[in-house]
Amino acid sequence: MKQEYSIFILSLQFLTRIPIRSNDHYTELRMAEIPRYFPLVGALIGAAGGAVFLVAHELLSLGSAVLVCVVATVALTGAFHEDGLADTFDGVGGGTSKSRALEIMRDSRVGTYGTLAVVVALLLKIALLTELPARHIPTALILGHTLSRLSSVLVLIRGRYVRDEGAGKPVAQGLSAKSTWVAVITAVVVTLLTWLLVGGVPIIAAIGVMLIAHVLLRLWIEQKIGGYTGDTLGSIQQVSELGCYAGLAACL
Questions:
Q1: pLDDT tens-digit readout, 44-70
Q2: Cβ-count burial of 46 within 10 angstroms (0-12 exposed, 13-18 middle, 19+ buried)?
Q3: I need a surface site. Which of 112, 134, 142, 145 has the fewest CB within 10 A?
Q4: How is 145-190 classified by DSSP, letter by letter?
Q5: 139, 198 in Cβ contact below 8 A?
Q6: Helix axes of 230-251 and 80-94: crossing angle, nearest 10 degrees
């Protein structure tokens, strides 16, 4: 039990900016297993965003409340995934070769492609959520943040890490069977709960569009660099989250 708690704390610290002391929990072995709790942490981030929306919507219009809750989730994660999205589009979009793409992604500066990618992603996120009935927005946030983290985990299961070091290095050898099952079962449970709230067709549409977004972006990335990095995991999370909201918006 203590082992699982430590892995969860490390996962929470890795994906959010919640000030948590993890010195007593850290080991390389535990770090390699933190993706098992990515969907659970995603659900908690989505729930926090949903709570912010509910409060904000009591005081503000629907669009303003959505803006506030999106900003809250970005602040909670420290724009961790948005940074990966920007670096991926700068590197993969602007690099003429694998080595050049990886070099650009290492650069702390944000270029034109990266800036546009983040701006468009945030605008789409706000627009798609605003299209939903207000009562379904908290549910959509929980589902989107959960499934999009599972989308990143799917890359870890079979993908190839292409750097010698970096944020993805602890799981460069792939996930254990236990971590894979914990991540998948968590996402399935959250999906079934949201199914009860919004119905089956919107959930199926959300999963379908998310998978299309996942596959297209992954093919583009792997064609260019032959695998994944920590940055590309962030970009896949962002695009998958957008796909989830797009599927829901199309049906609701």
A1: 999 999 999 999 999 999 999 999 999
A2: buried
A3: 112
A4: HHHHHHHHHHHHHH--B-SSSSTTGGGTT---HHHHHHHHHHHHHH
A5: yes
A6: 110
